[in-house]
Each structure stands twice: as structure tokens, then as C-alpha cells.
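Protein modeling request. Please complete all fields; requests missing the sequence field cannot be processed.
Requester role: graduate student
Desired output: 3D structure, C-alpha cell encoding
Chains: 1
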Amino acid sequence: MSSAVPGALADPMSRRARLQRGGTFSVVVAAVTLLGAVLMAVVLLLSAAPGPLVVGTVLAALPVGPLLAAYTWLDRYEPEPRVLLVLGLGWGAFVATSSALVVQVAGELVLAAPGSLTAAVVAPVSEEAAKGLFVVLLLWFRRQEIDGVLDGIVYAGMVGIGFAFTENILYLSAAYVGDPGSTGPGGLAGAVGLFVVRGIFSPFAHPLFTAFTGIGVGLAVTSRRRGVRVAAPVVGLLLAMAAHAGWNGSLAIGGGAGFVLTYVVVMVPAFLLLVAFGVWARRSEGTLLTAALQDCARRGLLHPAEVPWLVRLPARRVARRHAHTAGGPAAGRAMREYQLLAAELGFLHHRFLRGSAPRDGQARGQTLVEAMAALRPALVWPVAGAATTVTPVTPPTHRGGRP
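Delivered output (403 residues):
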């Protein structure tokens, strides 16, 4: 086999054109996000005084860190570009919230929709459409960044986390202000009470809803059937809307009893199923990458002894740590970059083996192979025998002699 990925269809777009298209996407999304941020800043400033806003912002930020850690833990083999992850957070926090707010206000004022209808129908449809649009745009303009279902879940999670953050600021600051016509607690007690419900018991609600759209987009990327590629994102979005509508609608059942029942019987099991699915998908990615890179090794794209150091997560950490210790920071960076390129090549080669290679697969594969070849002279492997395909090397042994 040549140094290119075999069997992929010819690339109709030059690499420079693809890079320009990706850069244009990032710039446009950043600009739209900035406009959404300005609109939401105005909304927040009009909704509450600075004191309640500070309290709401601090409380809303508390679940963000653990949620981000959970989703980045899933995204280990081929971490998504940080720029796109940040854009996803920003889209959810500002674009999705502002656009959904406009639709909901229009529904209440122009269409005279009652509050219950807005909560159970208008809000789920507008919010999930606004959140899911970012993942669909990625599928359209940056398809090469989504390798499967797990990537779709990660991007959907980023959007959902951003959306929940801004929405929580609105709700928590309003809870701090309290209802002037009631004797409710208000103040810090009211805000903390609502935070327990939204920030502790159900911080995963919005990421969970949007995950259905992400799963649909991931299935569309990996499927060989045109019907699945078209229908999967649509079905995923509809499921996201239905789950969101069921969650919101439960608030109006039985004076709150329906909410508790839905939470215990539906939401918690659904969240646990999503967690189990995410763990299973991550393990499946390891198996997938092993098979794909072993096939790449048989074709001469890399040495078979490299595969464990490129796939097994503990071995990847050992390889990076050893490269940094034995060869310095430059060697550590080279090993990290080599592992990321190998993972991307593995996912791309897997799609070739399945018969679902993208149109630009040949050009992308060639670029990855050449980039890996350029890094090989700087690699320092933990054990002897991890040779390159160009110039065999005898790397130093890891401390203790164990991989």
C-alpha cells in the first residue's frame, strides 16, 4: 500500500479550501455568539439588579466544572479542537438562549400562547432546535471533526452546558429577588433552594436532551445508508424535543408530584443509561482504533509495536511521560501530537473499512500519514521495538523496564 489511505474517493476540494471553510465557520459562529452575548447581557441586566445577578451567576457556575470534566473525560482518544468546544459552550450560553427567548416571547405576546403551552411545547421546540443547530452546522461545515456518536454527544453536551448556565442565571437571580406578591422566601434562601433542584439534582437535563441530537448526528456520519444520514439527525432532534417537553410538562402534573415522579422514574434512569452508553462507546472506540491501526500497520503506515502506545489510555500516558522525561518538552509534545494524529487516522481508516469514508478521505489520510512521518524522528518510545516505518530506532527502556 502507498502512503495514502487506500480506497477513499477523490477529494474535490483542496486542503487550503477546506481550511478556509473551517476558518470561516469559526469566525461566523464567533460573531453570531458575540451578538447573542450582547442580547443576553441586556436581558440579564433588565431582569434583575446587580446583586441578584452576581448570586445567580455564582450558583449557576458551580455545576459547570464537573459537567465539563465529565464530557472531556469521554473525549480522550481524539480530543476535539478546543476552539470548537468553546464555540459550542458560547453557542449554548448566548445564541441558543437568546434565539429561544425571542421565539418564546413571540409565542406569548403575538400568538397569545398560555404559559403552560409555552413551557410544554414552545420552549422544548425552540430551545432544542436552537441548541441542535450548532451540532448540525458542524455536520455540514466541519464534518471531519465528528468521527462518530461519542463526538456528537460531546459537542451536544458542550452546547447543553452553556445553555443551562445562562438559563440558570435567569432563574436563580429571579429566585433571589422573589415574587413581590407572595410570602415566599426569596433572598439567598430562595436562590439556594432552587439551586438544589436545578444545580444538584438535575444539572444534566439540558445536556441530556441535546445528546439525542448529537447521537443522531454521530450516526449520520458513520452510516453507509443515505436514508440514515438524512433521517438520523432529524429523529435525534425530535427525540430531544420530546424528552424536553415531557420534562417541562411534568411540572404541571399533580402540583409537583408529576415532576418528582418523572425525575425518579425517567430522568435518573435516562441519565444513567447515557452515562453507561458513553462509557461503552469510549471502550468501543479503543477496540475500533486497535483494529484500524493494526490494519494500518499491515499496510505499512506505522510499525505494529506502536499500536498499544497509541490506543491504550494508560500506555498513552506512560509514552508521553517517558518522552518528556527522556527527550525533553519537545519530545513530549511530539509524542502527544503523534498519538492524536494516529487516533484521527484510525477513525478515518475505520470508516474506509466500513465503506463510509468521506469524500475527502484520501486527501485527509495522506495529510495525516505525512504529518506522522514528519514527527517520527523526534519520537522517544518507552521500550525497544517500537520502531518507525521509515527509519527503525531503538528507544530507551522505560524506568523499571516495564511498559
